[in-house]
């Protein structure tokens, strides 16, 4: 069970003179239950790649498969695909439009053809999953805080019970507390529901903390695909692409240059703390 891209390319513009190639010969597979991070500079092709995964854009070349089926085959149900591969855009709260929170989250399930009762049941379950209290259900989304609106928007996608959840910069514009709460809820959903999660982020700390695998995009190409320790060990190559490793990576390398025999592989604060304690001869 997976999302699979084969030799995928995509260009903007109708004429060769104005053509911009957004994606170039990308092949990858994301299996059900994986937590994958996608990083790259602005304009590297991350958002276009995400839109390919749930058939919002059609590739110029190559194919997209969902559980082995070509999503652009004539008989494929692309509307059904978008309920199974849920995409949460950057600033998703801008898409909230109903008069109250519960109605907004019900919209997706109703659009799938579910009864009002079943749609409401799914909406309440999704709101509970992201930590929105019942007292908020009848409130206008615009009465909520930025973090709460973000949760409601994510609940609207979760209510369609996707197998994969794609999040394009889900914490953009949030304060640190709101960011940690949102990502903590997503990580909990991943563990509890076994949902595949694809997280696009500019925060290397967030990526290092939560994901199991990282895809690195640069100028429309997939240049690296590996576990966080492998990817962030390539500090120099990432810097050439305008990217960085988590701050702890540079701290550990700096300590090693000063003579402390410390493991430089850790990518989270907790791992770095333990590595430093071990280097000092103390138990973590």
- The assembly state of the depicted protein chains is single chain
Main sheet: strands, sense, barrel: 6 strands, mixed
What is the residue-mean pLDDT, rounded to a whole number?
90
Shape estimate = globular
Compute the number of helices: 11
Strand-pairing-aware structural class: alpha/beta
Q: What order do the strands of the largest sheet run in, or round the barrel if closed?
A: 6-7-8-3-9-10
Indicate the radius of gyration in whole angstroms: 20 Å
Short structural summary:
The protein is an alpha/beta fold. The chain is built from eleven helices and ten strands.
Features of the shown structure:
11 helices, globular, 6-stranded mixed beta sheet, 4-stranded antiparallel beta sheet, 10 strands, alpha/beta, 284 residues
Question: How would you describe this structure to a colleague?
Answer:
Helices cover 39% and strands 22% of the residues. It is α/β, with parallel strands linked by helices and 284 residues long. α4 (116-129) crosses α5.
Task: Furnish the topology, listing elements before pairings.
Blueprint (H helix, E strand, L loop, with lengths): L1 E11 L7 E12 L3 E5 L6 H8 L7 E6 L2 E2 L7 H7 E4 L12 H11 L4 H14 L16 H13 L5 E5 L7 H18 L2 E5 L3 H7 L2 E6 L2 E6 L1 H5 L2 H6 L6 H11 L11 H11 L5
Helix pairs in contact: 3-4, 3-5, 4-5, 5-6
């Amino acid at each position: 069970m997976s999302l699979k891209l084969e030799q995928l390319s995509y260009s903007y513009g109708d004429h060769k003179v104005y053509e911009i190639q957004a994606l170039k010969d990308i092949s990858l597979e994301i299996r059900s239950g994986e937590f994958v991070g996608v990083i790259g500079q602005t304009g590297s092709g991350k958002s276009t790649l995400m839109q390919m995964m749930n058939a919002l854009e059609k590739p110029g070349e190559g194919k997209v498969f969902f559980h082995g089926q070509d999503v652009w085959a004539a008989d494929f149900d692309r509307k059904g695909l978008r309920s199974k591969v849920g995409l949460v855009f950057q600033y998703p709260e801008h898409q909230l439009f109903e008069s109250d929170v519960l109605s907004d989250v019900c919209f997706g399930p109703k659009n799938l053809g579910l009864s009002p009762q079943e749609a409401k049941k799914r909406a309440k379950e999704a709101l509970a999953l992201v930590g929105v209290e019942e007292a908020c259900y009848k409130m206008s989304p615009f009465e909520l805080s930025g973090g709460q609106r973000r949760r409601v928007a994510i609940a609207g996608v979760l209510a369609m019970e996707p197998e994969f959840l794609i999040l394009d910069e889900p914490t953009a514009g949030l304060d640190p507390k709101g960011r940690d709460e949102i990502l903590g809820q997503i990580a909990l959903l991943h563990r509890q529901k076994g949902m595949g999660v694809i997280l696009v982020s500019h925060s290397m700390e967030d990526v290092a903390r939560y994901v199991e695998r990282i895809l690195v995009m640069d100028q429309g190409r997939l240049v690296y695909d590996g576990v966080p320790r492998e990817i962030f060990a390539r500090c120099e190559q990432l810097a050439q692409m305008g990217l960085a490793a988590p701050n702890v990576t540079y701290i550990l390398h700096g300590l090693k240059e000063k003579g402390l025999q410390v493991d430089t592989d850790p990518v989270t604060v907790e791992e770095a703390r333990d590595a430093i304690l071990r280097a000092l001869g103390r138990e973590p």
